[in-house]
Amino acid sequence: MQAFPHSTTAAPTAVVVPPSLALPVIESAFPRQLHPYWPRLQEKTRLWLLEKRLMPADKVQEYADGLCYTDLMAGYYTTAPDEVLQAIADYSAWFFVWDDRHDRFVVNGRTGDWRRLRYRLHAALDAPRHHLHHPDPLVAGFADSVLRLYGFLPHTWNQRFARHFHAVIEAYDREFRNRSEGYIPGVEEYLALRRLTFAHWIWTDLLEPSAGCELPEAIRKDPAYRRAALLSQEFAAWYNDLCSLPKEIAGDEVHNLGISLITHEGLSLEDAVEEIRRRVGTCIREFLDAERGALRLAREADDGTARGKELSAAVRACVGSMRNWFSSVYWFHHESGRYMVDSWDDRSTPPYVTNEAAGES
Question: 252's torsion region: left (phi>0), alpha (psi -120 to 50) or beta?
Fold first, then answer.
């Protein structure tokens, strides 16, 4: 794998990180990695978005590479076989498109369209093969990506992934209702919901096919492993909230840790930003401790048997990817056009989405 301290674009230049978002510890202690398959990954995911009609051709041409969705995954699952990384990257790109569709449905008050999509996604998750040719490209694309992900590990992993994503769909429904009603959840309520809308356990589940091994429950639920996994995801979600705050305030959003802190804790905008930064910093420090515990678990798994060696290597790979998530998320937020609000004509409407979502009336 390769280390990229700067941009992954064709003309690498140093990325300028605003002081309010800069985290020197990430830049110094979490070296950036990128899967060597990345250039091909970017090309194939772009073609997949076109083939599945998930974005209009002109939007793909103008924005897909600059959104850096493949960079995010290629910087995370760096030990994955190429085929696994491709399936994850396509699924991740789908997830961002789904998130944008959900946002446009909220903005345009399309409650009925959202309700239908929610039910269709639940159905496609349980029977993806039966939804490959669904007339809504978002449903068909989801079925395609899920079916591919289901092909790497045993059925028990597939069932777990499905259970976790059913919960994500329902969390998106809760967010839809909150936003439609202008309801801003309290801080603890928001944090619990955010773990689902950010899909903490989905990205953690995907560590296993990347490592080529379904981990036994005793390892997955071991406090050291679970704590390291949770902290890596919490960092990502909260740093995303920090970077998204200007965009979401411009769009009259209600789902952001900063907005909950301002509304329910009486913090000023500046104090809310500082509080999110404090929480982000705590995640980093606590992860470094949890990482040591998870690596001890990897050593203990090696009992001298072939299975023990396999499990030990898989746990080390998963923990290594958890570490990668910090740098990948950090740089993604400073390279992706998804967060360059100041360059948009309308700060509340991303230029890479359309209000008329494909496949819906």
Answer: left
- Output the CA torsion sign for 288, 292, 297, 303: positive
For the stretch 83-118, pLDDT in tens is: 999 999 999 999 999 999 999 999 899 999 999 999
Specify whether 198 is catalytic: yes
Q: How many CB atoms lie within 10 A of CB 95?
A: 18
Determine the pLDDT at residue 131: 98
* pLDDT higher than threshold 70 for residue 360: no
Active site residue 105: no
- Among residues 96, 142, 161, 326, the one annotated as catalytic is 96
Give me the catalytic one of 4, 30, 95, 287: 95
Instruction: State the helix-helix crossing angle for 111-126 and 82-107, rounded to 10 degrees.
Output: 160
Annotated active-site residue 95? The verdict is yes
> 346 falls in which pLDDT band (50, 70, 90)?
confident
The CA-atom distances, in angstroms, between 308 and each of 60, 213, 347 are 45, 12, 52
Q: Do the Cβ atoms of 71 and 335 come closer than 8 Å?
A: yes
326 is catalytic: no
142, 198, 235, 326: which is the annotated catalytic residue? 198
For the record, the structure tokens of 310 come out as: 């396999």
Concatenating the DSSP letter of every residue in 244-308 gives HHHHHHHTT----HHHHHHHHS---HHHHHHHHHHHHHHHHHHHHHHHHHHHHHHHHH--SSHHH
Secondary element (H or E) of residue 33: strand 33-34
pLDDT given for residue 179 in this prediction: 94
pTM: predicted TM-score of the whole model, two decimal places: 0.93
- 285 contact partners, CB below 8 Å, separation of at least 6: none
* CA–CA dist 159, 138 (Å, integer): 22
